[in-house]
Amino acid sequence: MKNIKKYNYIGIFSLLLVTLFSCVADDELVQVDPNLNTEASFWKTDADFLKGTNAIYGSMHIDGTYMRSTPLLLDLKDDATRSNSPWPPMANVGRFNTSLADDAIYGWAYRDFYQGIYRANQVFEYIEGVEFEDAGLKNRILGQAHFLRGLYLFHLVNFFKNVPVPLDNSTLIHEQKTEEEGWKQIIIDMKAATDLLPISYSNVSGLDAGQIGRATKGAALAYLGKAYLFTKDFPNARDAFKKVIGLNYSLVSNYRDNFTDKNENNSESIFEVQFSREAGGVDLSFGSNPTSGWGQTSARAITYGPRDFGFTDVQPTFALYNDFLIEKTVNDEIDPRLDATMFYNKPGGVMLYGQDFATFYASNANDLNDLFCRKYQNSDGGQVNEYDWRSGINERIMRYADVLLMYAEALNETGTTSEAYTYIQEVRDRVNLPDLAVTKPNMTKEQMRDQIAHERFLEFALEGHRFDDIRRWGWLQDSAKLAWLKSRDAEFETYSNGREYFPIPQSEMDNNPLVNDQNDGY
């Protein structure tokens, strides 16, 4: 009897188990620790979404983006820079000899810009249906997510040409798109950001009130115009830049104030990457997964630093130096942007890191007669060198001067060359250069194109714009222009067709079956 009861109990228990497990779905068996945040449980309050938006900005402060790699990828291929770095992945960028076998630097940028896009897509995924206490904040968060996704995609398209364009995180594998499709999405994102973002945060209420450094309507309009300019939609570019000009930005009187930590987020700054020696920890932001000890500092200063003060991986070319000497100011002086851009053995002396240039390099004739970067260096006496790797100088990636010269270019390309003079001269006036309408009146469209190229070369040297300009103007496919570039910078001797873009990282080709087309030349 006892055995029968025992078997009955076993049978009933087994039946209960069958019933239990036949009624429970697999996902119901996965229990989340209520003490831990998950992606799905995090996004609930206004403050949560602001933190999530801050994380999108955080992707600017890591190794592949503006902490180190992106300035190098932007600068090294142009005729304003050269590299004798002992590290092949860096030196080979400017020589158009990037290797598929080693994706250091360019592969990190690919990885980390997509990290930023993933974070932006999280905002879009979870914000729908959430009722905010501050409706205005919701719009500003959406606007920043659109802007930052568009900005990160802007770099990916410019670096890699045909790339995936993820608009959601439902899968980590996304189809490779054409360059045209990439630009189309950039324009969509920047348009959306333009409609949602405020002119500034000084007049908003909410958790982000008064927070300087966030994306604004002016930043979105400027990048919208730039996307139109790069896709040769000159009428729309002109109209976007005109709107920026109407937002009351102005050039700072001292050109060098754009490249130190003394006058950041100034009247000329439309968008800059915020770096600080005081924010966060003291660890360097290597890798793409942040830790609590990471600081928010830049490695640009040490990477570009003059000999014995930094690594000297990047140096100005003598072509850049010589171009600064082409035209004197109205007072018959050298263009002051030369001294703000580079260190050289200047007659009368020049100080760097508390040292006299000629005295410091007296024992080394090569260094004494060489050129070193000054923009974005902590060289005015506050630091003795850059060897702690931790620069707090903000990276000004969109300045009002850029908008003025891009607007002049759009005016020239839409048949109003005479109007372009006004906006070019505004940039020239700051450094006391003669009136271009007097020295070079009645230029043709073609002459004005070359003049704008010259103006941009001097104004934005070492700021990551020159090679983007060279590529979009088609100079590498123009035999005369390419020969001219080779005469100025020997690194162009090793250029071959297709190498204006970086390769799609081999790891992406191996792991994403929807990415099949490698860029030409690789």
UniProtKB/TrEMBL annotation:
Keyword Membrane: yes
Compartment annotation: Cell outer membrane
Keyword line: Cell outer membrane, Membrane, Signal
UniProt superkingdom: Bacteria
Signal sequence coordinates: 1-25
InterPro entries referenced in this protein's UniProt entry, alphabetically: SusD-like_N, SusD_RagB_dom, TPR-like_helical_dom_sf
Domain RagB/SusD: 268-522
Residues of the SusD-like N-terminal domain: 101-229
Entry keyword Membrane: yes
Entry's family note: Belongs to the SusD family.
Protein name: RagB/SusD family nutrient uptake outer membrane protein
Organism, scientific name: Thalassobellus suaedae
